[in-house]
Write a structure and sequence with these properties.
two-stranded parallel sheet; 4 strands; about 20% helix; alpha+beta
């Protein structure tokens, strides 16, 4: 397993790639959401991320985020996922037990 940032992955490829935390506020980041140029840079980074996979690409996001002080927040998926044609995606819903 190799963990990498999207910036470090430019120009590289792997057989299987997992892109994680694809939620609004994480990818794209909260800071970039209010600036068109920053949002487009994040979109370019998303393109880099999804084009690193040779065979399998997994786009992952949590449904719920646990807050440090307690409680949970329902997450919204990244708006970038709406740019991917539905016929190219297969949705899996995986629920885990409590930790």
């Amino acid at each position: 397993i190799l963990l990498s940032t999207v910036h470090q992955a430019k120009g590289l490829e792997w057989k299987v790639v997992f892109v994680i935390w694809l939620t609004e506020g994480m990818f794209p980041s909260q800071r970039s959401m209010s600036n068109v140029d920053s949002l487009e840079e994040e979109r370019r980074l998303f393109y880099v991320a999804v084009t690193r996979a040779e065979d399998e690409l997994y786009l992952c996001w949590p449904y719920i985020k646990r807050n440090p002080g307690g409680g949970e927040t329902v997450q919204r998926i990244s708006p970038f996922l709406a740019d991917i044609p539905p016929n190219l995606m297969e949705e899996w819903r995986i629920s885990g037990g409590g930790f």
